[in-house]
Design goal:
The protein is α/β, with parallel strands linked by helices. The chain contains 12 helices and 16 strands.
Length: 347
């Protein structure tokens, strides 16, 4: 079973439409697929035609309630299985109370992960999780459970800027739990006629490299119609361009399991609360100082940036307020031709 969580802290980037129709496409190519709505707004639930009585049946909320109460989760009562090879766990506003109550629970971020390890779910080839547009406990559960994070980028620099936030939260999750899902991005609600779209995609490709999927999902009235009718795009119009886009995306995702990427994402973190500016410079960016090398500052005094690095051996240093410094968190150093030390990173 492979678990894919669709995440982005920004709303309006087409996250739910992506999750629902990716699940539908996987089922169409013969994969037994489960979609879990983990958003209290229940948009995926509505998009699949469940407008009424969601408060009268068990939902994703019961996974968390059972854990908090110490009871058994009634998995068979959670799942709606009225589509061929595509099952569904709905949501409702009760998930908001789960978000609030999880703050004092030990292992709160791992509840969904442990639930999906139950033999009940072994029949599924893929699980797709639609996450809330925030980085609270529900999204942390989604990310902890995932083998892969899929991040939609719409035609907005606000969406593009959320890339660092996703990497940052994933890095914190890895340090706290050891979980490290693969992270891939894709252009969503894409207008191929727009010069802005082409510029944004080019900048995303430069930043993300192979982790930006080549498949795009174009802006489509048919997708909006399908959601309004409570249908997947394949139920509404299987021959439209959006259906083709989702087939292409699904084919690319299935192919990722067979490919060997020659790059990897690495986070650089430096604790320097008194610094005014911090850059990381190395052979991977030509030792060039600029906006692309500038670390983002956080309230706790940490500075952070992510780079998509080719696999191999790299030299680098921090440039802090005009002064060079090796990475204090990396004990591996080598002398350079200037008589000082460079930090060494092997990817």
């Amino acid at each position: 079973m492979k678990i894919i969580s669709v995440v982005n802290q920004k709303g309006g980037c087409g996250k739910t439409t992506l999750a629902v129709n990716l699940a539908a496409a996987l089922s169409r190519v013969g994969k037994e697929t489960l979609i879990i709505d983990l958003d209290p707004q229940a948009h995926a639930t509505f998009s699949l035609g469940y407008w009424k009585k969601s408060s009268e049946r068990k939902t994703a909320y019961d996974i968390f309630r059972s854990h908090i109460d110490g009871g058994q989760t009634p998995f068979a009562e959670l799942v709606i299985a009225d589509r061929q090879k595509m099952s569904f766990v709905p949501a409702n506003m009760l998930l908001s109370s789960a978000e609030i109550n999880l703050g004092g629970v030990d292992g709160a971020a791992a509840i969904l992960f442990h639930a999906l390890a139950d033999p009940f779910f072994a029949k599924y080839d893929y699980v797709i999780i639609d996450s809330p547009p925030s980085f609270g406990f529900l999204t942390l559960n989604s990310m902890y459970a995932a083998d892969m994070l899929l991040v939609p980028i719409d035609l907005s620099y606000f969406s593009f800027n959320s890339v660092n936030s996703v990497y940052r939260v994933a890095g914190l999750l890895n340090r706290e739990t050891g979980r490290s899902p693969d992270i891939f991005f894709m252009m969503n609600i894409y207008d191929q006629r727009s010069n802005f779209a082409k510029i944004l995609e080019r900048e995303a490709r430069e930043k993300l490299g192979q982790y930006l999927l080549s498949s795009r999902v174009r802006s489509s009235v048919r997708l909006r119609e399908a959601a309004k009718l409570g249908k997947t795009i394949f139920e509404h119009d299987p021959k439209c361009s959006a259906s083709l886009d989702f087939y292409n995306l699904t084919s690319e995702i299935l192919g990722l399991d067979e490919s060997e990427l020659d790059t990897a994402v690495r986070e650089f973190v430096l604790h320097a609360p008194k610094a005014g500016s911090v850059h990381v410079l190395g052979d991977f960016n030509g030792w060039k100082k600029g906006e692309a090398s500038r670390l983002a500052q956080f309230e706790n005094g940490d500075w952070s940036i992510h780079f998509n690095l080719k696999k191999g051996r790299h030299r680098y240093k921090y440039f802090i307020d005009g002064k060079w410094m090796p990475d204090p968190a990396n004990p591996r150093t080598e002398a350079n031709i200037f008589g000082s030390q460079d930090s060494i990173l092997t990817v």
